[in-house]
Amino acid sequence: TDEPLVLGIETSCDETGVGIVRGGTLLVDAIASSVDEHARFGGVVPEVASRAHLEAMVPTIERACREAGVRLEDLDAIAVTSGPGLAGALLVGVAAAKSLAVALGTPLYGVNHLASHVAVDTLQHGPLPEPTLALLVSGGHSNLLLVPDITDDVRHLGQTIDDAAGEAFDKVARVLGLGFPGGPHIDRAAREGQVVIDFPRGLTAAKDLERHRFDYSFSGLKTAVSRWVRAKQEAGEHVPVADVAASFQEAVVDVLTRKALLACREHGVADLVVGGGVAANSRLRALAQERCDAAGVTLRVPRPGLCTDNGAMVAALGAQMVMRGREPSDLGLPADSSMPV
Ligand code: KG4
Ligand code: ZN
């Protein structure tokens, strides 16, 4: 099919996402989130997420079809996140997608969550140049990927060896007494502050660059921030929240962009896609643009609503697979919580 009509289902974490695309065009992106139910625990609770997906799945599919003016019978393919993610959460989406595929006699495409964070950019900026380099930063992952072909050749260059970038934002926000999820709160607070504290840049020393050239580490940074704040509190001094937020954020986005551009240079890639929830960060977007301009690299960052988990990204990758003539999955498609790219 030239412009396949594809429905995508995403349930890897706390968002129940159902998106519908026609070829490279987004028709609808319906989302039900259980984020408020997790907020009081300060993190996503897997059991709570699974139950919320079960409750939201059918209504969200119905809403997506209604808003797109699409009948299930008209779909050319059903795509679903098969991993990585929370096992119980993934199962809900995979089971729903299989049921639809069987009932409708429609081909089923299992997709990788990390690849779909990259593929979503096709909905905003058109086909991906081949190869593309991708920096994927979210609450669950921080990866550098070399992408010769998003539908079947995604290569792993590096990843975090401890906390994900978004996780570091969430933990530091908690130390500073800001809300969950912490990223948007830190982003906002940092705008009122100055980068005055020199927090550590993980895995950037010469010896670390040898072994962990494209890997990240944020747990040392998180510890450094906690220690700095505790020392102020114990001394009975005022904690300059905005300055700490700005300085922490700068340390994260400095390392993220530095290594992404190093990868572009060393792999001879002229296009960088930044995706995942942390790609919504205003300072990351600005510094990535600045450094890409200086390096002659074209930067592509989807709008914030497409960066966080959603169903459109799954539909987008599914549509690319159909258009490339990739084989559909069979009904044995697993929910694979630790699926590699
Ligand atoms: O991609 P996503 O919605 O879910 C996962 O797959 O994890 O990413 C969520 C993460 C959270 O850690 C959140 O704090 C972070 O993205 N985030 C941000 C911003 N908006 C969301 N981090 C920094 N700055 C932001 N503006
Ligand atoms: Zn994600």
TrEMBL record:
Catalytic reactions on record: L-threonylcarbamoyladenylate + adenosine(37) in tRNA = N(6)-L-threonylcarbamoyladenosine(37) in tRNA + AMP + H(+)
SUPFAM superfamilies: Actin-like ATPase domain
Cofactor descriptive note: Binds 1 Fe(2+) ion per subunit.
Domain of life of the organism encoding this protein: Bacteria
Leading EC class: transferase
Positions with a binding annotation for Fe cation: H113, H117, D309
InterPro entries registered for this protein in UniProt: ATPase_NBD (IPR043129), Gcp-like_dom (IPR000905), KAE1/TsaD (IPR017861), Peptidase_M22_CS (IPR017860), TsaD (IPR022450)
GO BP term, pick one: tRNA threonylcarbamoyladenosine modification
UniProt GO molecular function: iron ion binding; tRNA N(6)-L-threonylcarbamoyladenine synthase activity
Subcellular location: Cytoplasm
Residues given in the record as substrate binding sites: L136, V137, S138, G139, G140, D170, G183, D187, N281
GO CC, one annotated term: cytoplasm
Cofactor(s) required for function per UniProt: Fe(2+)
Keyword Metal-binding tagged: yes
Keywords in alphabetical order: Acyltransferase, Cytoplasm, Iron, Metal-binding, Transferase, tRNA processing
Primary residence: cytoplasm
EC number: 2.3.1.234
Keyword Iron: yes
Residue ranges occupied by any Gcp-like domain in the UniProt entry: 26-315
Family of this protein: Belongs to the KAE1 / TsaD family.
Role noted for this protein: Required for the formation of a threonylcarbamoyl group on adenosine at position 37 (t(6)A37) in tRNAs that read codons beginning with adenine. Is involved in the transfer of the threonylcarbamoyl moiety of threonylcarbamoyl-AMP (TC-AMP) to the N6 group of A37, together with TsaE and TsaB. TsaD likely plays a direct catalytic role in this reaction.
The protein's name in its UniProt record: tRNA N6-adenosine threonylcarbamoyltransferase
Organism of origin: Arsenicicoccus cauae
GN (gene name): tsaD
